[in-house]
Amino acid sequence: MIRNIIILTLNDLSIAFKNKTIYLILFIPLFVFISLKFVDQKDANFRKTNIGLIQNEKYPPVIMKSIKAADNVFAISWLSHEEEGKRRLKEKKLDGILIRSEKEPQRVELLVLTKASFQTLAIVESFSALQVAVEGGSKNWISDIKPLQDSGIQKQTLPTWILMLVLLVSFIIAPAQVAEEKEKKLLLGLLQTPMRESEWLLAKIFSGMILIHLAVLFLHLLGKFDLGNCLSYAAFIGVGSFCFSSFGIFLGFLCRTQASARTLGVIFYLPLLLPSALSDVSRKLNTVAPLLPSYQFYGPIKAILLEGGGISNFSLEWIYLILVGLLACFLSYRLMKKRWLM
């Protein structure tokens, strides 16, 4: 009995090595470790808070003097007007903007990107500690916090869920479907009929795009979320689904079996999802994420849903996603012509 159990256990482990499942056991902990290294900000890597100040604004002298004295905590960026500050805040070149309070001239208002964020909490704590050190227990210098993205936590996380759905269909479902048709010789049989390679490829891309649109639409219907700029939103969902569906089909062609396709899909899925989704909480990830195609999709979707942006503001991202999708289509077509692993 024990001998049989040992033999079956070793057989299962050998299958895990054969179908590449063991790669996930090694890859996921390694990827999580690297991601935490990016996200975790230790005291040794302390970064100054970049505060924007408007040049013609008449700030309370005691606040200005204290901020300039605390040059080891705050870095001051002078702005010509408030709109410039909002633009730089959206580009994440500033952590916050100080505006003189109209109701209480001796206090200021803090303008941030999102109210419920670690960065906003750090700014408030820094100002509170500075105020206590200068004046003691008097009224706090910050009278109000005004976020540019003023919406609930459900709406704030919506772009992340949409990115997750798009990548899930493209890198988990699509590669496995392609590999299944190759493994069962269905694709080879279809290619022996009058059907052309381009027809099969376009059909697979359209099916992936339809699944993505259904998933996103179902999410909006369940959560009753506002679509924002509908045309721009639909355009980016369309071009994003085309790009990642094509990418997923290409990954499927690189694999012989469904198991290896799922493994390879997860290996691409996590690095495309997490750096983009966590870019708001880490300056390091915010530097790395723009290099990924997923961020070129996530950034515009987030701006359209939360800030009312339009596709005209993201023409480079739109073109970039189309080019990546066309490149993946071309590579898939070449592999089909060579009957790769069929």
Brief synopsis:
The protein has 342 residues and is an alpha/beta fold. The protein has two domains: 2-39 and 152-337, no CATH class; 44-135, Periplasmic binding protein-like II (D-Maltodextrin-Binding Protein, domain 2, 3-Layer(aba) Sandwich), CATH 3.40.190.10. Helices cover 65% and strands 8% of the residues.
Tell me what you see in this structure.
- The protein is of the alpha/beta class and 342 residues long.
- It has 2 domains: 2-39 and 152-337, no CATH class; 44-135, Periplasmic binding protein-like II (D-Maltodextrin-Binding Protein, domain 2, 3-Layer(aba) Sandwich).
- Helix content is 65%, strand content 8%.
- The chain has 13 helices and 5 strands.
- A 5-stranded mixed sheet has the order 2-1-3-4-5, sandwiched between helices.
- It is elongated.
- The model has no long low-confidence stretch (mean pLDDT 81).
Features:
342 residues, alpha/beta, D-Maltodextrin-Binding Protein, domain 2, 2 domains, 5-stranded mixed β-sheet, 8% strand
Secondary structure tally, helices: 13
SSE ordering: HHEHEHEEHEHHHHHHHH
Strand order of the largest sheet: 2-1-3-4-5
Shape field:
elongated
Structural class: alpha/beta
N- and C-termini, Cα separation:
40 Å
Rounded to an integer, what's the Rg over CA atoms? 26 Å
Q: How much of the sequence is in beta strands?
A: 5-15%
Number of strand elements? 5
| Average pLDDT metric | 81
Quickly count the domains: 2
Largest sheet: 5 strands, mixed
Task: Give the uncertain stretches in residue-range form.
Answer: none
The residue fraction in helices comes out at: 55-70%
